[in-house]
Amino acid sequence: MRSEVAVVPLPPYRLGLGRKRHDQFKDTQFQAQFKSFEALTRRRAIYLVATRPATLGSPHGATHRSLRSSKSHCSENDYEPVPYSVGVVSEEAGEKLWVPDIPVGQKPAYGMMYHSLQQAYEYYKDYAKRAGFEVRLGQQYKSNKNKHDNLNIKYFVCSKEGTNPAPTKVGAKSKQRKHSSKRTDCKAAFRVKYFEGRGYWCYEFIEGHNHSLVNEEDSVFLVSSRDVSYTQQVFLYQASQVNLGPVKGFNLLRVIYGEYDFIGFYNHFDSVVGCQKFAQRKNDHDSRYTIPDFHTELQIEKEASELYTRSIFFDVQTEIYASVISCMSVSVSDVDSGKKYVIQDTGEDEKLSRRHRIVKGKPLYDVFYEVLCKPSEEFYQCTCKRFESYGLLCRHIFYVIRLSKVKTFPRKYVLRRWSQDSLPPASVIQASGDTPDMILREIFRSVEYCVNRYANEPELLQKFRDHQVQLMAKADADVPIPKKTNKRDRIASILGVSQPEEIVVNIPKQVSTKGSRKRIKSSIERSMNPSGKRRKNCRFCKCSMNDHNQAKCNAVRAQIAAKKASDKAALREMKQRERLAAKKARLAEKNASASAAKKARLAEKNASALAAKKARLDEKNASVGENG
DNA sequence: AGAATCGGGCATTTTCCTAG
DNA sequence: CTAGGAAAATGCCCGATTCT
């Protein structure tokens, strides 16, 4: 039996923690641990939404929550689009105001007292979460008279407070934002004043927002909903200890917790949003809650932003922008009840000119398109057939629409599949009664909930542990000898199936292994890049054709081959030189030995000649002596 | 071989706070 | 109340590594 509950001090997740909360972890003891953990989760950190199981109740506005969420539990057939503008909309002085639909008593009010700034902040945040917006800190004022270093006034504002104007053109290159600002200059605020000795009181509460609020069901997409509960942190941290990265750890959590609906998660990285439903909901949320940056002043662009889902809008926006800068009318002629324009695409639009650099073997700017238009019938047709193949209008048609002085977006050409109000209903996984599986999950969740609650209260945590130990003893008493299930039955119950009487094994379908085959793409397809992503250039040759990487770069290969050849040549040359040198040496040696021998012979000869001469001389002298 | 994941680098936006 | 700045957060790109 365990006798101790270890409370592991955890480093916080980097994301979702503001500067303030980081400060809480300044303890040097954590530093090293924190750093490694932070590095681990830095890029791919996961946002999990701590959900409170309905059975356990939520501390605030439980009825409100359950009323709302009951809406979602309808079958797919009788799906009704959830009205998005949560709250009461009032129009004053030509300005729309969204006022959260929260009953009195559950929202801030003039004169409310709070012990501390933190409490006031938490209260407002909680209200904001129910109301469907986000909060951040606002201005603050400190009085010199204040002895206790307390702030005199603190504002808490809607996260859409203020403005963040798009950067103006810098030099020749216009700096275009990739992401639009979320600020709408919302005036909603909650302001508190210091009250000597008692805390802070609310002296102003501006309830109305100048933007729509987020529906309860989409509140998971709010930053304030991003949180990783204590036990989840422990889990992810321990997973990291055994070399299980955050993504895998998260996937594991997902499995343990059941479905997305139970765990509720939100992630910034598309790659991890594997669940189609969530990807769609996120797109839907973005479409409704944020306003994109417009590239033109055209009414048609604004309308498009309201008609299309966000990701599709960006595509349409590109075309509208291109219609302004890269299309030219070459000729117009009357046809039947309409007009026929010949449009030249100059390919000014850089992105697309790179993408469609060559169309049917011709450079883009050489391509002319014919647009048939009957504005009265809202009829447009272009020979580029973009609408027919993609379901989205082309730049040439947008150009003609502008020429025809049509201001509204032709609704006829907004296909239902791209439009905002055609997003599919969220398929809700219904709890299927009290199956053992559900009961187990419920138990795990309730225990986890308690642990999260008590995480920072060691005494209460200990009490909870003791209580659990008692329950264990009770379980022992209740069931002294647990029934043994046979392995087969256990597996069957886990899998939720029973073993069939007769086993029929079908011949499995032949499925090719992942990545074992590669479809050969045509040259046109290769140059198209349908994903829209900017392709990587080869690092080596910087080739903009983007059809290869450094590993497959012909230039690299050529360089390597050239180097090999030159190396080989150098080697050959060196060997040749060596051979020559050796030959020379041999020759020199031979010569030397020959000359030495010759010299020796000569010397010998000389010596013998000399000796002979001397002998002859001696002989002569001797004979002269004898004779004289 | 291709998919999935990781992680450094960088640009940009948001948050929080202060000076004037 | 506004403007502006520092720091934190966010998100994309892209090459490298690991997994399947």
TrEMBL record:
SWIM-type domain location is: 369-405
Q: Where is this region: Disordered?
A: 58-77, 581-628
User: Which domain of life does this protein belong to?
Assistant: Eukaryota
**A Pfam family annotated for this UniProt entry:** FAR1
Keywords carried by this UniProt record:
Metal-binding, Zinc, Zinc-finger
From the UniProt record, list the coiled-coil ranges.
none
| Bilayer-spanning residue ranges | none
Q: Where is the composition biased (Basic residues)?
A: 62-71
InterPro entries annotated for this entry?
A: FAR1_DNA_bnd_dom (IPR004330), Znf_PMZ (IPR006564), Znf_SWIM (IPR007527)
Question: GO MF terms on file?
Answer: zinc ion binding
Q: Which PANTHER family match?
A: OS01G0519700 PROTEIN, PROTEIN FAR1-RELATED SEQUENCE 5-LIKE
What name does the UniProt record give this protein? Answer: FAR1 DNA binding domain, Zinc finger, SWIM-type, MULE transposase domain, FHY3/FAR1 family
